[in-house]
Amino acid sequence: MQVFLAQPRGFCAGVNRAIAIVEKALAVYGRPIYVRHEIVHNKTVVNDLKAKGAIFVEHLSEVPDGATAILSAHGVPQAVKDYAAGRRLRIFDATCPLVMKVHREVVRMHNDGLSVIVIGHKGHAEVEGTMGQVNGNIYRVYTNEEVDSLRVPDPNKIGYVTQTTLSTDETKEVIARLKSRFPAIRSLSAADICYATQSRQEAVKKLAAQVQLVLVIGSSTSSNSKRLRDIAQKAGVKAFLIDSVADVEPSWFDGVDRVGLTAGASAPEHLVQGVVDYLKARGEVSVVTMPGVADRIAFPLPAGL
User: Between the CA of residue 219 and those of 30, 31, 192, 271, what are the distances in Å?
Assistant: First the structure.
């Protein structure tokens, strides 16, 4: 069997930074450290940080006065930061800098008097954080039908941003629909899809062209991981999203001698190696890393860490 590893894959700079913030806060301030929402959408990462002393909560009201709390990589509504400022809490913001960039775009558009359209999944933590940057005149869409039913105060004063973890393919059609319906619509950025989302999607397209089966390591709550699976399936290849090797079904490999592996931006590399080890235990395996450039971007930690 040949096993092809996508390049790049796994942790992105924003995820590396978020995890480092929790680990450094634990080292500097001691346990427990409270984290609002999952720091990243990966079960293994969350469980590992729990074992080190992180306590995950959904609301800062669950955090005792004087404690240290961290805001997740997905970003939070401004109201959460305002609430934190009114509490005796030591707060570190692990919001991905690329999500922060989208937040700044939203505020700028709002201050310019535009209706702001957020293209993204209903209920996703990043989308809720983005929409919570301003009060009113902000709307979410994901489908053409939602664009068609959209009503804004002034169709000539409108702008849009996108959830960073969507694929360019899935936003292309709805952006075209928005531009058709609202010719004056503008975006302050050429694209909000983050570099890691884009590079991993391009890598999985190349991977799918070489193999009969693609396994994507990532949690079902991870939007970017689900997109990688969807892209492989769209290429006509069997593809499955798994949290770890424990989710692998032996029947998937029947008649298969070329397997592709990749991982979402919040999935650690040791989970990929766990699947490789499993396949090696089944028989003779050669492992090939696909051509590509590994991420070399790094984001600094916040002041105080």
Answer: 28, 26, 23, 11
- Amino acid 241 reads L
pLDDT at position 229, please? 96
Structure tokens at 161: 């941003």
What's the confidence (pLDDT) of residue 95? 97
Residue showing tokens 């489908």 = 143
pLDDT in the model for residue 191: 67
Q: What is the pLDDT of residue 230?
A: 94
pTM of the model: 0.92
pLDDT at 296: 86
Q: What's residue 169's pLDDT?
A: 80
Angle, helices 223-234 vs 168-181, to 10°: value is: 90
Q: Are strands 2-5 and 33-36 parallel, antiparallel or unpaired?
A: unpaired
Show the tokens assigned to 39. Answer: 């720091």
Between CA 120 and CA 135 the distance in angstroms is 18
253 contacts 285 by C-beta, under 8 angstroms? no
Positive or negative, the CA dihedral 147, 150, 156, 162 is negative
Mark whether 202 is an active-site residue: no
Buried b (16+ CB within 10 A) or exposed e, 179-192: eeebeebebbeeeb
What is the Cα–Cα distance from 149 to 170, expressed in whole angstroms? 19
pLDDT 10s digits, 94-108: 999 999 999 999 999
DSSP state, 186?
Answer: B
User: Could you say which residues of the chain have pLDDT below 70?
Assistant: 190-191
Instruction: Give the number of residues written for the chain.
Output: 305
Sheet containing 68-71: order of strands = 54-57, 33-36, 68-71, 90-93
Q: How many CB atoms are closer than 10 A to CB 173?
A: 12
The predicted structure's pLDDT at residue 183:
96
Of 38, 105, 126, 128, catalytic:
126
